[in-house]
Amino acid sequence: MKDTWEKVFEYASSPLHGTMSRKLREGVSIQVNEGKTYAKAVLFLGEQFVRITEEEAGQKINTYYDWEKIDSVRTYSKGE
Fold this sequence. Notes:
With 80 residues, this protein is mainly β. The protein has one helix at residues 2-12, and strands at residues 13-15, 21-24, 29-32, 37-38, 41-45, 49-56, 59-66, 73-76. The chain is 14% helix and 48% strand.
């Protein structure tokens, strides 16, 4: 399923200039494995893992997901 999850993450984000990371598109949030919903986060899609970086209360928080342990990815965006 890694290829499918990569496409979902790519759809929900855009490349961050000068890096291999991706920023969530404006108005889009994601949820991995029915866990926390990320609204303003940066994604790194590595070979073995996905890293989601967010800022909260002046701290950078990194959450790592093993590709093989991802069971679901939910995206949220405003309807038109």
